[in-house]
Amino acid sequence: xxxRRTRRLRGLRPRLVVGFGLVATVAAATTGALxxxxxxxxVLKQSQDATIRQLRTQVNQRxxxxxxxxxxxxxxxxxxxVAATEGPGDxxxxxxxxxxxxxxxxxxxxxxLTADVREAVATSQATVFQRVRESGRTSLVxxxxxxxxxxxxxxxxxxxxxxxxxxxxxxQAYVDALVTAVxxxxxxxxxxxxxxxxxxxxxxxxPVRALRDATRSIAEGRLDTRLAVNGSDELADLSHTFNETxxxxxxxxxxxxxxEARARxxxxxVSHELRTPLAAMxxxxxxxxxxxxxxxxxxxxxxxxxxxxxxxxxxxxxxLMEISRFDAGAxxxxxxxxxxxxxxxxxxxxRGWSDTVETWLPPPDAVRGRVDPRRLDVVVAxxxxxxxxxxxxPVRVCLEASGEPSAGRLAVIEIRDGGPGIPDDVLPHVFxxxxxxxxxxxxxxxxxxxxxxxxxxxxxxxxxxxxxNHPAGGAVFTVELPLRRDESSEENxx
Length: 494
Description:
Layout: H1 2-9, H2 12-62, H3 72-83, E1 92-97, E2 100-103, H4 115-123, E3 128-134, E4 137-149, E5 155-167, H5 169-219, H6 234-291, H7 297-328, E6 336-339, H8 340-350, E7 357-360, E8 368-371, H9 373-390, E9 395-402, E10 410-416, H10 450-460, E11 464-469, E12 475-482
Parallel strand pairs: 7-9
Antiparallel strand pairs: 1-2, 1-5, 3-4, 4-5, 6-8, 9-10, 10-12, 11-12
Helix pairs in contact: 2-5, 5-6, 6-7, 7-10, 8-9, 9-10
């Protein structure tokens, strides 16, 4: 559950939405910052220019009234008249001449007036301004020197300096309102970006999901699956490529299946055609075997060789016929309820292995189940024969029942030999057809189909077979078969 949730959070849709959200956030924040900066600069510059123009006008109008040199009372009237231009308390004016100092408000210390402004006004005839924040308030400080015009048009400095402090409360309110407006505008912008991101993600994810479903369908064997190609973008090109690949894969698989079917049919036909001449050859070799003792040694050896090879060829043909039935789906189970221990004893006895193979089998009727007796005989015979040919004595066959009746009991058949075991690189391939662990092994040592037929017979019963190496040495083959019972029969105690 947690893994699925983590996978969803890391999916394409969340990443697209987050990506769009980040882009929208950056765009909105950048646009808002630029807009705020430009608007703030415009508001403050307009207020500043208007204040400076108005101050110059007032100074030019009232400068002639100062007289030269001005006294304290003249400076006081000058500062008061200039400050009276705006409403009470809006303008605060300071006029200086040498050591004389006159303020529009008595005992005003003018904390906003910095040394930099004083020095700039003293050394230049230009108008100087500065924005100063003091005690949480922003004010505009303007300073200028009062000049007189000469007959030749030149300007001369009178020595009178005027400083103006104007609170920018209204301008700050405009700026604060602008900030609030930008913040409010960002929320709808982000919501709109998320909505657009969802629509964009849907447009991207629909073809991706269709491609995912089509890929799963191909993996499940439906090779005729195709995607609808809409548009001419990269996703449409990907869908077109997928369709071409699926068509090529369908064609290749159809050809391979046809070749496989023809190969199976050929093997079945050849095996069927060989059975009749092999039957005649077997009959002849049986007769020759009876007379081999009366033949000269060379002829007797040749007869026995022919007889042995005929038997092996007949076994190979039978194995090929059996494999062909498995491949064609024509193999059938003929179930019968039998005593599995007794069936194993008959298998060993019929092949003359009773004295060669050790058995650990339960008492009669202790392990009963519905199986196909012929196929169980093939399974046991192939595994024991394999242990005798490729392993070493002792070869031991064990049978036991495991599991609870309510959950379904299993018959466990274990065949173990005393040989060197199976190499680790061979273990994964022991049930493959025609596989031989030693390529130098002679043709007469087996067809390589016995274990494959064993695995198919076990699979038909709904069981499993596996190969391993015993810790004490030797190879171990373990077969597990479900113990199905007749509904009318009663279970015998173990």
